[in-house]
Design brief:
479 residues, 3 domains, single chain, alpha/beta, six-stranded parallel sheet
Length: 479
């Protein structure tokens, strides 16, 4: 049957499972909005285009469902870039659709015309500009497949205005999503990993954010318990092991790292890293990080292995399938000596930062102590960047996987509030909280109006130090 591109797009995203959209309508995208209005998709009109992507990102992190971010052309579309980068570096799939001038005018510098696929090629898994109406189904099929395959990430589709209204032959019943293949581990390499653990005297597990994406943080803890191996989490995996678990060795690294994590890492002779990418915030100085220990790296994305340094053993695999294999193959394997791990709870307490300040004005450490006491384990948190994020990473106590949702790789000021709104849309019955600095609040604070308009209560704690705190520290350090 004949159908416009705009109608076909909406029918396809519905069939692919999208239920939620965050957008700002405009003349160059209004044909799509004509059909969105009648689709079974809840749409939230944001106040800034960047916030559309952050909200879709937050929604995905909390629900594990892809959302649509949609806006018009030109400056509206370019405002998507920071949101795309934030989602891309943290491996979050978001479907972004933007308008464009008429196809025949693209070489004439028309009003609000910019080449978005070229602009976003380094912050998306792929970006397209539709050139013919009939291309749409294949592009959409590939877009959803890419978002779901391997290391997840965002994509972008640019739709010229005249093509949105163009008709072509399309049958939604004939449209079928592409199946996603999940890479399984090489069993011989899993056995080699277990041999390396057996031969080591002080192994440690690093749980990365990929364990949350794959849904295996609980199984990582189970494996650690079986062999009595301490677990260090990356910042993106905060909450993957309960705070008071005997094997919880905190975070390692700089800024958001913790003394306990650094101590346990430096005392290790073998690192089993699962679903992480060895970011500089986690490793700090690479010579210090690597010296005296061997590394096993498990990652779903082949290009991530060896990007920072070559591990002693690499395993390309979905994290969950790899951990399931390790659990199966390690049955009956002897655990590590008890004395080493028995010392971790006391060491964790000894190295913990002081939070019980009673002075006035209130110390930020005390604020996070109160946050830890007031909000329960099912509370969702977002965090963006700056010294507030550093305090948050070091001081917040998170006991459940997937409840702490930071901008990890990008450190995006302004991510916190729109992402939190997206989380609240996904989890309306849970408390959704962010702790921000006074400067950060002004970046995307206008999205508070959106939360109010849609009656989605979010909780924002503002630390007002009247400075760009982290930047002030850095400038003072320069003399």
């Amino acid at each position: 049957m004949k159908m416009t591109v705009a109608q076909a797009l909406v029918e396809i995203v519905c069939k692919e499972g999208i239920k939620t959209a965050f957008g700002i309508p405009g003349a160059a995208i209004n044909p799509v909005y004509k059909y969105l209005e009648h689709a079974p998709i809840q749409h939230f009109t944001m106040r800034h285009e960047e916030a559309c992507v952050h909200a879709a990102d937050g929604y995905q992190r909390a629900s594990h469902e892809i959302a649509l971010a949609i806006c018009s052309a030109g400056p509206g579309a370019t405002n998507f870039v920071t949101g795309l980068y934030t989602a891309f570096i943290d491996s979050m799939p978001v479907l972004c659709v933007v308008g464009q001038a008429n196809l025949g005018q693209l070489r004439q510098e028309p009003f609000q015309c910019v080449d978005m696929p070229d602009i976003v090629k380094t912050v998306t898994k792929k970006a397209w500009s539709l050139k013919e109406a009939s291309q749409l189904p294949d592009i959409m099929r590939e877009a959803f497949w890419l978002m779901r395959s391997g290391r997840p990430g965002p994509v972008l589709l640019e739709l010229p205005l005249d093509l949105q209204k163009a008709e072509f032959d399309f049958d939604i019943d004939a449209y079928q999503p592409m199946p996603v293949q999940v890479p399984a581990p090489d069993e011989a390499k899993l056995r080699q990993a277990l041999d390396m653990i057996r031969d080591s005297k002080a192994p440690v597990i690093i749980m990365g954010g990929g364990c949350f994406i794959s849904g295996c943080s609980g199984q990582v803890v189970q494996f650690a318990e079986r062999l009595q191996i301490p677990v260090i989490t990356t910042y993106m995996a905060k909450g993957g092991i309960p705070e008071d678990h005997p094997l919880n060795a905190g975070h390692a690294g700089i800024q958001v790292g913790q003394p306990i994590g650094n101590r346990v890492l430096l005392d290790s002779d073998l690192v089993l890293a699962i679903g992480n990418r060895f970011s500089d915030r986690h490793t700090g100085d690479l010579k210090t990080y690597r010296e005296g220990r061997r590394f096993i790296h498990i990652n779903i994305e082949p290009s991530q292995i060896g990007m920072v340094f070559e591990p002693d053993l690499s395993i390309v695999s979905d994290a969950k399938l790899a951990v399931e294999g390790l659990l199966r193959l390690s049955e009956g394997m002897q655990a590590q000596p008890a004395a080493r791990v028995a010392a971790i709870p006391a060491l964790r307490k000894e190295l913990a930062r002081k939070t019980d300040y009673g002075c006035s004005p209130m110390m930020p450490h005390r604020v996070f102590r109160e946050v830890n006491e007031v909000f329960g384990d099912d509370t969702y948190f977002t965090s963006g960047c700056g010294i507030t994020q550093i305090w948050s990473g070091q001081l917040q106590r998170i006991n459940k996987a997937g409840k702490y949702l930071p901008s990890g790789g990008a450190g995006t000021l302004g991510y916190e509030i729109p992402a939190l709104f997206g989380v609240k849309v996904a989890r309306p019955d849970q408390d959704c909280v962010t702790v921000v600095g006074d400067f950060c609040l002004t970046f995307m604070g206008v999205e508070i109006a959106v939360a109010s308009a849609f009656k989605k209560p979010i909780i924002i704690v503002v630390l007002n130090n009247a400075y760009l705190g982290l930047i002030r520290q850095n400038q003072k350090g320069l003399g």
